[in-house]
């Protein structure tokens, strides 16, 4: 069995993926000892880079926690029944039917668990070593130290949160048993599994610390790197970042707005809609007052050539990870099922968009044969200027989710305002407005349907219906999720604690 230390070192040395900035390009000539890595401020930047590379790998947001396994669980794809009958593709049928005990599913869920805690281990060792130094050790002083700790704590919280959302029952069920550990130190002993409420409180605590540590850089000192999609993601503007390239690419790094948005998500999952609304309002003002997160206009996604469309709708992405090889990963994932089967159509798509086929998410983001265009490889070299900065993105959270969080709270307290707010989002997505005479329950049903449209092939559908403990809605046939279908069993071997 691997030790916690070995997993840590393997994570720190993952530098095989391409990346989006010069400071991401550090390539060690041979294995670096932990002590050498943290002997200068450059090593800390390298270690943080290694964490982001972990997050962008196939076991996490570079496949299984985005368009891959988690989107199968969310019933996003129309998987051909004949394909799932072949032994080598059994995991397709097992995934969409929630047969978690089959070996082909266990291998996926164990890899998610191991890579998640590997990433957490790297966050912990970075935090501990950073905290051991004074501000003068770092090239940009206190601001750089705060960013290193703030980003690592925010990422540690995010990783624990998604593990909790996979491997433990949702709080709405009332099950507060101990399912997963919350690991905050670099250790070799067996971490204690904690009640879900304790894990959520730890997630919230880490996110609040991240929010506080990142506020100065992202809202005052380097705010220009946050105020537009171009500044958040475009590699050609890094020279304008105060302090150099390390302080650029804030859209692909844990940042103040993302930490605040994740706090809203965590409180909503916990069942505290009022606190979720409070943090969502703080994120919302960056769009409503500052204009930082505008919704992608129709003109940027309506080109007749699909390779010229900004199908990731990257203007309102609050946090995304980054993998320039994502085209190959996506193709390889589908090709692994059947060499001539390049895409899975989106399931029951016409029913999901019934009566609203002008919705941009149907009209422009789905191919005429039904598959999602969000992850389609681009082969037209002349299109690269249009897709260079948004196609490698792995969306983690959007401004649209902030609208849903606010609307869910307002449905209880101010339904007319909730309807008006959701209509603002629907208009931005080219969808038909809601009738203002809807009841609360009618409004919520339509809001959850809109959220399902929004999260197609991005991995959030499963979490949405799990949080609510509802039947899984896939556009037509509700799926009964009783019998533990929302809870993935813990891996047989928890590698991180051996």
Overview of this protein structure:
By secondary structure, the protein is mainly α. 47% of the residues lie in helices and 4% in strands. The protein contains 19 helices and four strands. It has helices at residues 4-12, 34-37, 41-55, 69-73, 90-96, 103-131, 141-167, 196-221, 229-233, 256-270, 273-288, 326-335, 349-352, 360-363, 384-387, 399-413, 415-428, 440-454, 461-468; strands at residues 178-181, 193-195, 317-322, 393-398. Strands 1-2 form a two-stranded antiparallel sheet. Helix 3 (41-55) runs antiparallel to helix 6 (103-131) and helix 7 packs antiparallel against helix 8. It is globular. The N and C termini lie close together (6 Å). Mean pLDDT is 88; it is low at 1-32.
Write the layout of secondary structure elements.
Layout: H1 4-12, H2 34-37, H3 41-55, H4 69-73, H5 90-96, H6 103-131, H7 141-167, E1 178-181, E2 193-195, H8 196-221, H9 229-233, H10 256-270, H11 273-288, E3 317-322, H12 326-335, H13 349-352, H14 360-363, H15 384-387, E4 393-398, H16 399-413, H17 415-428, H18 440-454, H19 461-468
Antiparallel strand pairs: 1-2, 3-4
Helix pairs in contact: 1-6, 3-6, 6-7, 7-8, 8-10, 10-11, 10-16, 11-16, 16-17, 16-18, 17-18
């Amino acid at each position: 069995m691997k030790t916690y230390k070995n997993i840590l070192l393997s994570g720190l040395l993952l530098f095989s993926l391409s990346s989006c900035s010069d400071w991401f390009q550090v390539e060690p000539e041979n294995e670096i000892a932990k002590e050498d890595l943290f002997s200068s401020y450059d090593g800390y930047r390298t270690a943080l880079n290694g964490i982001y590379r972990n997050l962008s790998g196939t076991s996490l947001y570079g496949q299984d926690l985005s368009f891959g396994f988690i989107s199968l669980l969310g019933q996003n794809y129309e998987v051909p029944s004949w394909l799932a009958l072949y032994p080598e593709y059994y995991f397709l049928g097992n995934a969409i039917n929630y047969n978690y005990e089959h070996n082909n599913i266990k291998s996926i869920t164990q890899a998610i668990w191991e890579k998640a805690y590997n990433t957490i281990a790297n966050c912990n060792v970075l935090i501990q070593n950073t905290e051991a130094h004074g501000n003068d050790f770092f090239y940009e002083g206190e601001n750089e130290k705060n960013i290193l700790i703030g980003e690592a704590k925010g990422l540690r919280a995010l990783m624990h949160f998604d593990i909790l959302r996979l491997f433990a029952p949702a709080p709405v069920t009332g099950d507060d048993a101990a399912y997963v550990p919350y690991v905050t130190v670099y250790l070799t002993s067996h971490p204690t599994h904690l009640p879900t409420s304790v894990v959520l409180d730890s997630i919230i605590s880490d996110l609040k610390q991240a929010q506080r540590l990142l506020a100065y850089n992202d809202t005052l000192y380097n705010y220009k790197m946050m105020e537009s999609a171009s500044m958040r993601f475009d590699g050609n503007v890094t020279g304008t970042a105060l302090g150099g390239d390390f302080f650029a690419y804030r859209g692909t790094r844990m940042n103040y707005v993302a930490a605040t948005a994740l706090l809203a998500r965590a409180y909503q999952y916990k069942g505290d809609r009022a606190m979720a609304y409070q943090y969502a309002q703080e994120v919302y003002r960056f769009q409503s007052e500052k204009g930082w997160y505008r919704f992608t206009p129709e003109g940027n996604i309506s080109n007749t050539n699909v390779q010229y469309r900004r199908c990731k709708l990257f203007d309102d992405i609050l946090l995304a990870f980054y993998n320039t090889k994502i085209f190959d990963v996506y193709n390889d994932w589908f090709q692994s099922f059947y060499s001539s089967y390049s895409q899975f159509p989106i399931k029951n798509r016409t029913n999901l968009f019934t009566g609203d086929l002008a919705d941009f998410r149907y009209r422009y983001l789905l191919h005429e044969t039904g598959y999602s265009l969000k992850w389609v490889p681009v082969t037209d070299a002349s299109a690269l200027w249009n897709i260079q900065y948004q196609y490698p993105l792995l969306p983690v959270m959007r401004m649209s989710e902030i609208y849903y969080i606010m609307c869910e709270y307002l449905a209880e307290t101010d339904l007319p305002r909730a309807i008006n707010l959701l209509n603002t989002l629907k208009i931005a997505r080219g969808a038909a407005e809601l009738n203002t005479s809807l009841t609360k329950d009618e409004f919520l049903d339509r809001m959850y349907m809109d959220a399902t449209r929004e999260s197609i092939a991005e991995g959030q559908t499963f979490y949405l219906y799990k949080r609510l403990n509802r039947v899984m809605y896939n556009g037509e046939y509700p799926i009964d999720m009783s019998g533990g279908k929302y809870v993935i069993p813990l891996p047989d071997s928890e590698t991180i604690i051996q």
